[in-house]
Each structure stands twice: as C-alpha cells, then as structure tokens.
Design brief:
166 residues, mainly alpha, Four Helix Bundle (Hemerythrin (Met), subunit A), 0% strand, binds fe (ii) ion
C-alpha cells in the first residue's frame, strides 16, 4: 500500500462524518457532541501523521511548488484545528455551532480535494513507489500514536518547525 491509499481511506470517512454532522440540528446537541468526538478521533491523528509522513518530505522535494502545497496544507490544518477547538467549547444548541460546522465542512472538503488532486500529484513526482510504501507505514505508525494521545484527552499540536508560520 502506498501512502495515498491510506490517506484516501481516511478522507472518505472524514467526508461521511462531515455529512452526518452537517445534517444535525440545534435540537440534537447530544448527537452533535458524539459525532464531533468521532470526527476528532479520525481528523486529528490523520492531520498530525500526514504532516510528518507527507508534508515534511514534500517540503524537501525538488518538484516545482511541491513545498508550497505542503505549507498551504499546514495552514489549512491550523484553521480547522482552531475551529474544532471552538466547536468543542460551544453548545450544540447554539446557532454559532451550526455556522462553524458548515465552515469546517467546506474547508475540509476543499482541503481534501486539493490534497487528492494537487498534492498527491506532486508527491507522485517526488517519491517512487517504494518510498510511497514506506511513507504509508510511517503514516500508520504515527497515526496510531496520535490516536493514543487523543484518546488520553490530549490534542497533539503541529510539529514545532511550523510554529513560526502559524
Ligand atoms: Fe488528508
Ligand atoms: Fe490534510
């Protein structure tokens, strides 16, 4: 398996959950909380592992604009991290929750599309098959570690190399 397959499988689950979340109303605060927790459990480990297993190698790629897409990805993750944090501290029966969720959904759908269309293309030019297979193994290992952290109630931050550009 190459890293793209592992990432795409998560993207599919993320998009399904976003649809479910977007279909909830202010009368379903309980369901919103439960689904938001589910989304966080997939999204946060995915993003943190993706940053290290894909974005970091892309930042070092010689392929034109590959690094720019990695930097853009980091910023899009940071925006969603911020909104997810806000959502967690907002009541599910608040109209603000509904509005923030629709921004999260739009941002993530755009982000996922750009990743699958543009970032994967640059990555496929940058890394050969065996490298992409190794990256898949790294991604899955990191994702499991970040999932442990999320389950322990922590929200792992972006790597320190990115603090300056946030
Ligand atoms: Fe992704
Ligand atoms: Fe991403």
């Amino acid at each position: 398996m190459q890293i793209y397959d592992a990432l795409k499988a998560d993207h599919k689950r993320i998009k399904q959950l976003l649809k479910k979340l977007d279909a909830t109303t202010e009368k379903e605060a309980g369901a919103r909380k439960k689904l938001l927790g589910e989304l966080k459990g997939i999204l946060v480990p995915h993003a943190r592992a993706e940053e290290q297993a894909l974005y970091e190698p892309l930042k070092k790629s010689d392929v034109k604009e590959a690094d720019a897409l990695a930097f853009e990805g980091y910023e899009e993750h940071a925006v969603v991290d911020h909104l997810m944090e806000q959502l967690e501290s907002t009541a599910g029966n608040d109209k603000k929750w509904t509005a923030m969720m629709s921004v999260v959904k739009e941002s993530l759908e755009h982000h996922i599309e750009e990743e699958e269309e543009d970032t994967f293309k640059k990555a496929k030019k940058s890394f050969d098959r065996s490298e992409a297979e190794e990256m898949a193994a790294t991604f899955l290992k990191l994702k499991a570690e970040f999932l442990r952290q999320v389950r322990a109630g922590k929200t792992p931050p972006q790597p320190p190399s990115h603090e300056l550009v946030r």
